[in-house]
Amino acid sequence: MFYEPKDGHGLPKNPFNSLVVPRPIGWISTVDMAGNVNLAPYSFFNGVAYNPPTVMFSAGHSRVEGEDGLKDSLRNVLETGEFVHNFATWDTRDAMNATSADLTRDVDELAMAGLTPIPSRLVTPPRVKESPIHFECKVVQTVQLPNTRDEHTYTVVFGEVVGIHIADDLIMDNGQIDIGRLHPIARMGYQDYSEVTAETVFTMERPGFHPYAK
Ligand SMILES: Cc1cc2nc3c(=O)[nH]c(=O)nc-3n(C[C@H](O)[C@H](O)[C@H](O)COP(=O)(O)O)c2cc1C
Question: Is 10 inside any structural domain?
Answer without folding.
Answer: no
